[in-house]
Model the fold of this input.
Amino acid sequence: MATRTTNGRGRRYDSIVDTVGDTPAIRINRIAPPHVTAYVKFEAANPAGSVKDRLALGIIEAAERDGRLKPGDTVVEATSGNTGIGLAMVCAAKGYPLVVTMAESFSVERRRLMRFLGAKVVLTPRAEKGYGMYVKAKELAEANGWFLASQFESPANADIHEATTGREVLADFDGERLDYFITGYGTGGTVTGVGRALRRERPDTRIILAEPANAALVSSGYVNTRNEAHQATESHPSFQPHPIQGWTPDFIPYVLQEAMDRKLYDDLVTVPGPEGIAWTKRLAAEEGIFCGISSGATFAAAMKVAEAAPEGSVLLVMLPDTGERYLSTPLFEGIGEDMTEEELAISRSTPSGQMG
Done:
């Protein structure tokens, strides 16, 4: 095997925000069924570690262009973590103060990362679920005149995915087979934006949407009420707490509604939380791909699709984020700090390990 070399990207960047996007599509070599070829779109390669860097940048720059966001303005948003981390990165680079509201049920790592990037994090009660943090962000925006990022309603969310994620998928598979595109939804921006691009340029590609088995909001057929600003006005009755952080708030976002209304996906797959965790661990241990629970859950949905897929099918699976922001979640249960018996045995197998 030849020694690997690199040549650089052939350019220098004026800001960290200029490095958002152009994430790699990586082949799965060991854990996909042999009759299909599976690739993953590795969004952890974004500068703040998740797909939400895209919508954070898209929303902020759209607001700058139309004058809704001016120098010195404070940005506020409700988030389960990844959008907040992306916004904290963008706001730090551009000089905007940021306040994030987040339910206390989400991982501690996320709030610490946002604070490290300069944001203020306001926690809302666990019992109020995602809707509670959503209400708090709206209250703070109205009370203080702050700019509400509105990731769940903003057209800039799906637009940035159409202009970046969708274009990248088309370019990476230009002239090549692509039978299935599989994604979960949080805000709905990915499926709506990429769905637009694929329906226009690759209409034969089947788009598969995945959601938690015990919080199957789209599958329920019920759409929560919204006000004139398209903001949800209730918690969805089909929502139950689940471990797939970032996959579905407890309401159907307006951004996702476009994908539902325009039929920008072909099939809907539900995934139990434990299956998502199991596939996340397999991606790490057997492919070396370190990602979060929502990534494993999306991959679990893809493996269900693969079971019935025709011979030679090619799948692309969205992996939204890195695994580092899940250290305090069930994903890392059983991963200890001290040596296991097997590790102790390895240590004791040579003379230095037998001392003391």
